[in-house]
Structures are given as structure tokens and as C-alpha cells.
Amino acid sequence: MNHMINKEELKNQIILALNLEGMQPADIDDAAPLFGEGLGLDSIDALELLMVMDKNYGIKFANKEESKAVLASIDTMAEYIDNHRTK
Amino acid sequence: MIQLIADHIITPLGEGTENNLNAVLRGESCLRLHNEVHGEPVPEPFVGSLFEHLPQRQGFTPFESLCIAVAEPAIKQAGVDVSAADCIFIISTTKGNIWTSPADSARKIATFFGNNSTPVVVSTACTSGVTAQLTAYRLLSRSKYKTAVIIGCDVQTLFVVSGFQSFKALSPNPCKPFDAERDGLNAGEAAAAMILQQTDSPFSASAEHPWTLLGGSVHNDANHISGPSRTAEGSMRCLNDACELLLPDNLACISVHGTGTMYNDEMEALAIHRAGLEDVPVSGLKGIYGHAMGAAGLMETILTIHALNRGIILPTIGFSKQGTTYAVNLSAKPRTTEKHAFIKLLSGFGGVNAAVAWSRETVSEQSATTTLDNSCSIRIVNEIHISQQNDINNLYRSLGVNYPKFFKMDSLCRLGFVATELLLKECGDEIDVENTALILANHSASIQNDTAYQATIADPHSFFPSPALFVYTLPNIVAGELAIRHHLFGETSFYILEKETDLQPIIDATICSPDINSAIVGWLECTDKTHYEAHLKFVSKTND
């Protein structure tokens, strides 16, 4: 893929989609887990992140298990987007 | 005592309770693949049980027309004067109308039948059909009303189907309740009506087999607004309460929710296990009708009653192999029984669970009297009023509370959150988390958030239904958010009414429930981000 995803842009999309009021991209660690500890996101947030992937990058997941690994952190999301984006 | 004197159901399988029961026992179903909902194309096909044609009465929406169509035969069969001042209409629906307040529809329906009493709309997500029975039970026991016409109805729309799809909750196949291979629910639509009457004698009801509604309860999981509790807190409490209303030896079956999603069925099986009811036969109808939302609770209650009249426990179609951590007593085939009491159990978004108990006892200690407190009055502990002069986000910031989830909530929930924080500021320590109820109401349901969700599906070329918005398209979610915030396992109910004063008789009757000692009650209205009003009271019960 000739243009790698800008992680700051991805973080901004996540902050916007999840209404993370007052949070800045710099507050989200690239490697930290998004769920449970870390940002403390829940199952509805996970579904909302799947929509971010679909809407902005044309990525759909066939099953939950696959998406779970991808949504683990900013790093895993960015890597998957670089390899699978259709837009 | 509160008795069933007539009922009627209309489903895609056919019209009439007995016709539907025969079809169910023949193993019929209307679940099939659809590419559209009543003419609206759906980008991703889904399996559902839908009407080929919805009734369309002039001057009424399809939802209102279906409500009238199902109530008319029941009223005729009951032979009661529903225009009398002691008769009330109670409607159970989730999204029967989206852009018209269900309270306005309820008024049109009541007026159609010549009834001038103030109608009540119960809006507690998927538990609405059971909560509506409980509301009727309480109002008939502790208000001026003697007869209740309860109508449960929902029609499917792109709005609802796309929302469930965004939640990845729909199965691509006919659903398999409690089965090891279950993978989601099916959309359904139906209408059901029952007429309940307060009678002094078990023999005064006109029905051949008089069934008595013994009461019930509502409990919140205080855990999550969409996910079922992993510990089945609310559902287990509802089952425990229902068991106290029955003679255990009479319990023929539990009619469960059984949606066919991984989490719901696991939770219900755990609730049954925790309540010590694993040997009691269980049955669920979603494998035939899909999830008929606001109609489900009434339809499933009525079909269970008619099946038990024939000595039959309904089959759970779609089930073949136990797929829950704790096994439940299920069968895909009809079973026979000589017992004549059952529990109807449901769960829904907002962490809400509800159960009612029914019995065909002719004379018993249990059914002879109501289980509600005889007389009780209400003491107002605190009261709060917020109008649109107050900016909600600023009010939140001034509270000095750190609750990051606040900013994910829709406007109605933010309003309820801030109002409740202010209300409980001085009485927080007094709250009894097991026995405090939330009884809330408004006129516009979740209209502000419905508009926001609609914007995510309006353009077929940019069709991205938002799950975070969809979950707030039910007004009772605010009660769920407040239960989570304050760890409340008590009742969480939401009503859609014409005006605030219409809530008072419901509060007065609800507070007589033996499991309720105090309550957060009141009006939470939000028509858009700049038009809102909250008037909440924290009340406690004083037994006279």
C-alpha cells in the first residue's frame, strides 16, 4: 500500500465516533489495549469502531473473533487498515 | 383478583389465538429471507417473520390500524363496555411509530373504541409486553379502573432492522433458541390483545377457563445498556419474585424470552439455574415468530395460556442441542402437562427484566387476594426541576463528577443523569439499591435521538447505521443508565403519556408493590438538544 495510515487521523476518527469528550490523540497510546483497561471501551464502542472501519476504509469483518484481534490497539487497527483498506 | 376475560392475536401465521396455536403445534413458521421491509429496501438481507400486507385504516398509521384490528375481536369476545370510565387502554410497543408519539396513537386508538380515559403506553424495550400486564395488574388493583384493554404491537421498519444489524444481533438463518449453534435473533412483527378485569369471585369471569394474573416484578441488571448481565441479576430476581406468587407444584412451565442470541439465552439459563428452577419445563416461541418486540410479551403469554388449556407445553422450535452453560429443560416438541400455572419472563435493552405469574386455579390462597400493599402513601424526600435555561453539559461539569460515559449518552440520558445527580445529592446514602424503583415518563419518547439515528441510514449511498445511536432509540435506556450509575437492581419502567400528571396514578399503584420502598419518579422530556425539561422526585413509601 503506497500511503500508510496516519495514526493521529485514526485516533481523531475514534475520538469523534465514540464521543470521547476532552480527549486528544496524544492521550491514546499506540500499543495500549483499547478495551478493558486502557480507554475502557465497551461492546457498543467495539461495534461503533467496526462502523469506523467500514465507513472510512471499506473494511468489513466476517466474524467477531477476527475483528476482536484487529480492534485490540491503535497499532493493530492501523496495520490491518494498511493491508486491507478498499478506500 | 385480576382475570383474563378475552384475547386475540394477529401474526404473519394467521389471525386468531386458536388458529395460531394450531399452526404452532403443526410446526409452521413465517420466518424467511427478506430484502426489504414493507417496500423499503434493506442493503443486507435478513430473516424475519413479516406481514405480507399491513392493515391500513384511513386516518391511522399501519401500527394504529393493526392495534385496532387486534383489539376489536377481543373486545367483542369480552362483551364489556370499553367506553366506560373505569376502563383503561394500555399499549405495549417499542418502535410501533417512530415519528408520531405513541401516546398520541394510544389516544386515537382509545377514542376509536369510544374510551375517554387517559391511555398508557409502556415503553420498556423488549420487556414492554410483560410490564404492560404488570401495569394493568397494579392499576386494576389500586386505582379507579376495573377493566384494562392491553394491546401489544410492533411493525418492522428499515429503522429497526438496520439497528439490529448494526448490533450484529440478527441471524442469517431461522433462530435457534438455547441451541449450541445459535447465532442471533430474527426480526418479527405481530399484534396481541388481552382484556383483564378485576373480579371479586373466581367464577364471575366469562371465560371457560378463568386465568388469574397473580402479579410480577421488574428488575434491572445495573450492568449494561445493551448486553445481558453475565450474572443474570435482574432476571433471577424476577423469577424468585414470581415463584413466591405461585404454588411450586402447580408450575407447568416458564415461557422464556429465548431470542437465540448467544448472550440472552446464556443469561436466561443462568437465571433459571440461580432461581433453582432447572427442572421446570421451559419454552420459547422466537423460532416460529421471530422477535415481535412490543407484541412478544402478550402474544407469548396468550399462546401459553391457550396451550395449557389443552394440557400442552409449547415446543421450542429451532432448539436441538443444549448450548448454554447451565442446561434448561427444553424440547423442540410439544409436551403434555396437567399443571396450570406458568411464569412469563422477558429481558430487554436498558438492562431491564420482567416476569409475571399466571394461574388457572379456581380457588387458592394465592389468587384470592392481590399481593400489593393494602394502602400506602408517598412522602416526597426531594424534588428537582431543570428547564432549558440550564445547559446540561455545563450542569454536568459543575457537578464535579467524573463519569466519562456521560458524553456518549444521548440528550435524554444526559438530562436524566444530571437531574438524578442533583436529586440524590443530599439523600444518596439513603438509597436502598434492591428496593428503589425508577418510574419515568415523557411524551416524545426518544425523538431527538431517533432523528440522529435516522440520519445514519437516510442515504442509501452512505448507509452506516450507528449502533451507539441505535441503542438510545428506546426511551427506557435512560432508566438503565441511571440503574448502572446508582447500582439499582429495582424496577426501571418508562411510560409514554400525554402529560406529566398522567403518571401519578401509575406511581401510586406501583409504589404499593411489596418489593418497592422508595422511587425516583417523574418527567424527562427532550424534543431536541435545546428543548428539554426534567421534573424528578425522590419519594419513599409510608405504609398507613
How does the SSE layout of this entry go?
The complex is a heterodimer of chains A (87) and B (544).
Chain A: H1 7-17, H2 43-57, H3 64-70, H4 74-84
Chain B: E1 2-11, E2 14-15, H1 17-25, E3 32-37, E4 40-49, H2 62-78, E5 87-92, H3 102-112, E6 120-122, H4 128-142, E7 147-154, H5 158-166, E8 187-188, E9 190-198, E10 211-220, H6 233-245, E11 251-255, H7 262-274, E12 282-283, H8 286-289, H9 296-309, E13 312-313, E14 335-336, E15 341-348, E16 352-359, H10 365-368, E17 376-387, H11 392-399, H12 411-424, E18 436-442, H13 447-457, H14 467-470, H15 477-486, E19 492-496, H16 504-510, E20 518-528, E21 531-543
Parallel strand pairs in B: 4-8, 5-6, 5-7, 11-12, 11-15, 18-19, 18-20
Antiparallel strand pairs in B: 1-2, 1-9, 1-10, 3-4, 6-19, 7-9, 10-16, 13-14, 15-16, 17-21, 20-21
Helix pairs in contact in B: 1-9, 2-3, 4-9, 4-16, 6-7, 11-12, 12-15
CATH superfamily of the largest domain in chain B: Thiolase/Chalcone synthase
N/C terminus separation of chain B: 22 Å
Helix count of chain A, per DSSP? Answer: 4
What is the element string of chain A, with H for helices and E for strands? HHHH
Any idea how many domains of chain A? Answer: 1
Strand content of chain A: under 5%
Number of helices of chain B: 16
User: Any guess at the CATH architecture of chain A?
Assistant: Orthogonal Bundle
Structural class by helix and strand composition of chain B:
alpha/beta
Largest interface comes to: A-B, 17 and 18 residues
Overall pLDDT of chain A:
88
Q: What do we call the CATH topology of chain A?
A: Non-ribosomal Peptide Synthetase Peptidyl Carrier Protein, Chain A
- What can be said about the biggest beta sheet of chain B? 16 strands, mixed
Determine the N-to-C terminus distance of chain A.
11 Å
Q: Which fold name corresponds to the CATH topology of the largest domain in chain B?
A: Peroxisomal Thiolase, Chain A, domain 1
Kindly provide the radius of gyration of chain B, computed on alpha-carbon positions and rounded to a whole number of angstroms: 21 Å
